[in-house]
Amino acid sequence: MVKEDWKTAAVKRGLIDEIERLLKTQTVRNEGITNVSQFVDLALRDKIATVRKKRFEHVNMYEDHVKILDNNIGKDGRIISVYFNNEWPWCEYCEEDVCVHIQYAWEIPEVRDILKGRNIKPPPSRLP
Ligand SMILES: [Zn+2]
User: Fold this and answer.
1) What are the backbone dihedrals phi and psi of residue 83, each rounded to the nearest 5 degrees, phi first?
2) How far is the CA of 108 from the centre of ligand 1 (A)?
3) Helical packing angle, 109-117 and 100-107, nearest 10°
4) How far is the CA of 59 from the centre of ligand 1 (A)?
5) Whole-angstrom Cα distance, residue 75 to residue 62?
6) How far apart are CA 101 and CA 68, in angstroms?
7) Separation of CA 85 and ligand 1 centre (Å)
8) CA distance 107 to 9
9) Tag placement on the chain: N or C end, fewer CB within 10 Å?
């Protein structure tokens, strides 16, 4: 390994102690992890993958619509508006009344409460 490829980050002693305890377990050994650096490296890679995978973010809510960031559109994601001022919600991006954005909007508790209050029906099934 080349020294220039490495940088140091401070980790609390208690966490290192816990990792050292875990390194002695069969579960961690079975993953082929043998030292603290390897464990931290894998944990960080997992966290990075989780953050990258997060597709939707609730941006803001208005009287008649909710704004959602869809990180899967374009390079930097796109903010989508889902309107709920009619009997069915409406996605301005998909131009549909059933889509992943409406599904996600339903998963936001504040939005769901408003939609239920207006007798708007939930999407028929969970979409991929
Ligand atoms: Zn949509």
Assistant:
1) -95, 145
2) 15
3) 100
4) 15
5) 26
6) 7
7) 16
8) 36
9) C
Tens digits of residue pLDDT in 32-83: 999 999 999 999 988 888 877 789 999 999 888 999 999 999 988 999 999 9
Nearest to 115 by CA among 65, 40, 50: 65
For the beta carbon of residue 111, count every other beta carbon within 10 angstroms: 21
> Is residue 87 pLDDT above 80, yes or no?
no
CA separation for the pair 50, 48 (Å, rounded) = 5
Residues 106 and 112 sit within 8 Å (Cβ to Cβ): yes
**CA 83 to ligand 1 center in whole angstroms:** 10
Q: Is the pTM of this model over 0.70?
A: no
- The phi, psi pair for 15, rounded to 5°, reads -70, -45
